[in-house]
Amino acid sequence: MKVTLGLTIMMMLMAVLGGCGGKEDVEASFPMSVEIGELEAVNQDDAKVRLSELNQDKIMIADFIFTNCETVCLPMTANMAKLQSEIKKAGLDDDVQLVSISIDPEMDTPETLTEYSKRHSADYNNWTFLTGYSREEIETFANVSFKTPAAKVEGSDQFVHATSFFLVSESGTLLNKYEGVSDPPFDDIIKDINKLK
Predict the structure, then answer these.
(1) pTM of the full structure
(2) When you count CB atoms within 10 A of the terminal residue's CB, does the N or C end of the chain come out lower?
(3) How far apart are alpha carbons 19 and 11 in whole angstroms?
(4) Residue 21 has what pLDDT?
C-alpha cells in the first residue's frame, strides 16, 4: 500500500513538473534568445503597423530586403514566396506571419513595395512588407534586435544586410536564423514552426 501511494505521489509530481516549462522550455532549446524591440512602420498598403502587432499570437519569419538590390534580395524574396507556399501546404498559414523589412525606406515607398511583392505573388494574408521609418532607425533596429548589419555601401545605392530568414516566437524572441539565398532549409523551418505551435 505504501509503495503504491509513494508511486502515485511521485507520478503526480512528475506530471506537474513536466507541465511547468511548456513553451519556455521549447524556446530554450533553440540556438538564439534575443528579445526583439518595437518597430513602427507602414506596410505595402500605407497602413501604420507595429511589429509587435504582426507578431502577436503568431510565429514570425522575417527578412531584410530592399527593392533596388542587385544581388541577394531577388532570390531571397523568391525563396520567401516558396516558404509561404510550404507553410500553406503544411496547414500553418494561420500560425505564421512573414515579414519583409526594407532597409532602404527612402526608395522603398509602399507603392514600390506593392509592385515588388506582386512580382513574387506575395499573399498579403500572412506576408507583410514594411517601410516608413528612417534609415538610422532601421539600421539600429537590425543591429540591436536581429544582431545583424544593415548599412548603406559608401558611394553606392546598395546596402549591406543579412541574407537570413529569422524565426521569432509569439513572445517576440528571436530563436533561430536560416540561409535565405541559396538552398534554404524549408523542412527545418517547418519543423521549428511546428515545435513552437
Answers:
(1) 0.86
(2) N
(3) 12
(4) 53
* Fold of the domain spanning 23-196: Glutaredoxin (3.40.30)
Contacts of 35 (CB under 8 A, 6+ apart): 145, 172, 173, 174
**Structural contact between residues 142 and 148, judged by C-beta atoms closer than 8 angstroms:** yes
- For residues 49 and 110, give the distance between their C-alpha atoms in angstroms, rounded to a whole number: 12
CA distance 93 to 116: 22
Give DSSP secondary structure letters for 143-167: HHHS---EEEPTTSS-EEE--EEEE
**pLDDT reading at 154 higher than 90:** no
Q: How far is CA 197 from CA 12, 32, 168, in A?
A: 25, 18, 12
Cell 500500500: give the residue: 1
Q: How much of the chain exceeds pLDDT 70, in percent? A: 89
Chain segment 32-42, per-residue pLDDT in tens: 999 999 999 99
Sign of CA dihedral 23, 25, 28, 33: positive
Amino acid identity for residue 116 in this structure = Y
185 and 51 in contact (C-beta within 8 Å)? no
**C-alpha distance from residue 106 to each of 34, 64, 66 (Å):** 28, 15, 10
Measured in degrees and rounded to the nearest 5, phi and psi for residue 174 equal -70, 125
Pairing of strands 159-161, 173-179: unpaired
Cα 68 to Cα 57: distance, rounded to the nearest angstrom:
32
